[in-house]
């Protein structure tokens, strides 16, 4: 024990002052962090709906899911057509050999999974639960409920889970 402060010394230099100083500094940092957390909770609390949204976003997280890369977005990649004011947004996602084509309109989503096969799709977004979308034998799907705000698609095949990047509708 160091006779000056009562902390054990590390034996490297025989006095332990550096170890004690590091421990005191870490304790002071932890106390300051806790005080700042308490002040933020009082002065700028997180709204309940935002806390709920964060919890649901975490609950939707699939550790084993592969991320489908956005390879085409008509807002960025397509040439504008003169006279067309409300063109649907076209998206293409790829994950390995799997491709998901999606058309986003004010009426909902229309899309196709290629190559076609047994799959289930869920539309993820907002504070609501994931909305399941039926996929037919040709890989086509249709959702009459347009996404509001950020959304992603979760595709479950027989062997894997694939999640698209999050986009704003």
Walkthrough of the structure:
By secondary structure, the protein is α+β, with helices and mostly antiparallel strands. The chain is 25% helix and 34% strand. The protein has 3 helices and 10 strands. It has helices spanning 17-43, 48-59, 74-77, and strands spanning 66-73, 89-95, 98-105, 108-114, 119-125, 131-133, 140-143, 150-157, 161-164, 167-168. A hairpin with a 2-residue loop joins β2 and β3.
Q: What structural category arises from helix and sheet content?
A: alpha+beta
Overall spatial form: elongated
Q: Which parts are unreliable, with pLDDT below 50 for 5 consecutive residues or more?
A: none
Number of strands: 10
Average of pLDDT: 81
Radius of gyration: 26 Å
What is the CA–CA distance across the termini?
64 Å
Q: Indicate the proportion of strand residues.
A: 25-35%
* Major beta-sheet overview: 10 strands, mixed
Secondary structure: helix percent: 25-40%
Total helix count?
A: 3
- What string gives the helices and strands in order? HHEHEEEEEEEEE
Task: Considering the chains and any ligands shown, give keywords for the structure.
single chain; 169 residues; alpha+beta; 10-stranded mixed sheet; 34% strand
Q: Which helices and strands, and how do they pair?
A:
Elements: H1 17-43, H2 48-59, E1 66-73, H3 74-77, E2 89-95, E3 98-105, E4 108-114, E5 119-125, E6 131-133, E7 140-143, E8 150-157, E9 161-164, E10 167-168
Parallel strand pairs: 1-9
Antiparallel strand pairs: 1-2, 2-3, 3-4, 4-7, 5-6, 5-8, 8-9, 8-10
